[in-house]
Design a protein that fits this description.
It is built from twelve helices and no strands. With 267 residues, it is mainly alpha-helical.
Length: 267
């Protein structure tokens, strides 16, 4: 366990050094957050039907996406791991006195946390100071906020476990491009990052509920806004834990299978 905590700490410290990139990303996230909110304001202003989610909750949903983008984006990748697999340097990883799955998991988790820490607080402050229509709303109660934190952290673990499957697939495909495109595009859509899940047609919502992606972003954000009641949120935490156990179990099995057939050429 100390080895995994150490690599997490080192990766976190290393990630905190990229401040210029983080500030540039923060400006981009603010820009896109405002653009998306303007689109929703225009949509709600001209809609003649009552929507399943209020404009206030959609604005909050959008800002939470931008604030915690590093937690929920599936296209976030570590090229070093891809190069280890495709270049043959995976042999060095096999010599480590620790599990590869846990080692990589800790690295990916630290990278996401460090990126989020650098960006989230300035965006949060600005989103709270905007005019009423564009402002991030506060949670209804302390209990709701605590539930949000629990679901958000579980969502982060879920997104890392899904990302691990992308890296593991490269043992067979030898190219990360296809895996990233397929999983990232589908994952972002069903997680509600393109349009919020409540605004989807009923049949697409059912498909979203049957997949793990929705539990990484849509579920925590709707817990924050209070659209998902606290009792339902507690059941959702249980489902998140079940998905997490299933994904980690499948990922470990897949990695062990890949390592049994891996061939390292050269010398």
């Amino acid at each position: 366990m100390n080895a995994y905590l150490s690599v997490w700490r080192l990766r976190f410290i290393n990630g905190m050094q990229y401040r210029a990139a983080a500030y540039a990303g923060m400006v981009t996230q603010l820009f896109f957050g405002l653009v998306f909110i303007m689109i929703y304001v225009a949509f709600y202003g001209h809609s003649t039907h009552e929507q399943p989610i209020s404009l206030k909750d959609v604005v909050t949903y959008t800002w939470l996406q931008q604030i915690f983008l590093a937690f929920i984006m599936l296209w976030f990748r570590d090229n070093e791991i891809f190069q280890l697999i495709t270049g043959g340097n995976i042999a060095y990883e096999l010599c480590r006195p620790c599990g590869i799955y846990e080692f990589w998991f800790a690295k990916l988790l630290a990278q996401r946390v460090s990126s989020a820490v650098l960006r989230c607080f300035p965006i949060l402050l600005i989103a709270l100071l905007l005019p009423q229509t564009y402002r991030l709303s506060l949670p209804q109660s302390v209990t709701t906020f605590m539930l949000f934190l629990v679901t958000l952290l579980l969502g982060l673990l879920l997104i890392v476990s899904i990302s691990m499957l992308i890296y593991i697939s490269v043992f067979w495909t030898m190219s990360p491009t296809g895996s990233i495109l397929m999983i990232a595009v589908a994952g972002e859509f069903f997680a509600g990052l393109i349009i919020p899940v409540p605004l989807m047609p009923a049949w697409l919502q059912q498909a979203s509920y049957a997949l793990p992606f929705r539990w990484t972003a849509d579920f925590p954000f709707r817990v924050y806004s209070g659209q998902i009641p606290q009792t339902e949120a507690l059941w959702g935490v249980l489902i998140q834990l079940l998905w997490l156990a299933a994904l980690i179990g499948f990922g470990r099995w897949s990695l062990n299978l890949a390592l049994r057939h891996v061939v390292v050429q050269g010398g």
